[in-house]
Amino acid sequence: MTASDLIIGSDGLARPAWAATTDLLRHYYDTEWGMPVRDEQGLFERLSLEAFQAGLSWELVLRKREGFRAAFAGFDPERVAEFGEGDVEKLLENPEIIRNRRKIEAVIRNARAVLELREDGGLVDLIWSHQPAENLAPETLADIPSRSPESEALSKALKKAGLTFVGPVMCFALMEAIGMVDTHLLGSHRRGTSGVWGEA
């Protein structure tokens, strides 16, 4: 493990470098990242935020998270599915979010797809059915892949269901964020805390 992979904070706890740079990222890493999300609205929010993050920094998305929640009706898929062109235009003028027409329209389209998925098991079952059989045990950041066979399969399944901005790299990031894979580095104080994989 290189010195830069884990940083010991002033609290004596080890975190990866990306989670040790700002208070916002540190709090997100310590309290949320890698913890299971098993409700439809929670997963729709994570999918939507991952879509907005594409090509940008995750810290920027986190800074605007409350703005996103207000703008997208708390990421209630039933309410977002009813958004029309007028709502899109209003969102494009909203400085509290990332104003990208393709991403905004994708979130609305995805909300409608999520509602249709309810007839076939639902978003939660679809996503969690792609949990890998074995967990990862990365010692260094270089050990963590950007995609996996499971994220590729999840991407295909989500696209088949009508969702967009759900490529295999984005799906792997989602799987990390919701604890489907535990990519906390060995030695991190958060390793094994999700309860999904135990301590390994």
From TrEMBL:
InterPro entries named in the record: Adenine_glyco, DNA-3mA_glycosylase, DNA_glycosylase
Q: Name one GO biological process term.
A: base-excision repair
Its domain of life? Bacteria
The alphabetical list of record keywords is: Metal-binding, Zinc
A GO term for molecular function = metal ion binding
SUPFAM superfamilies attached here? DNA-glycosylase
Specify which residues bind Zn(2+) according to the UniProt entry for this protein. 184
A Pfam family the protein falls into: Adenine_glyco
Q: What is this protein called?
A: DNA-3-methyladenine glycosylase I
Question: What organism does the UniProt record list as the source?
Answer: Corynebacterium pollutisoli
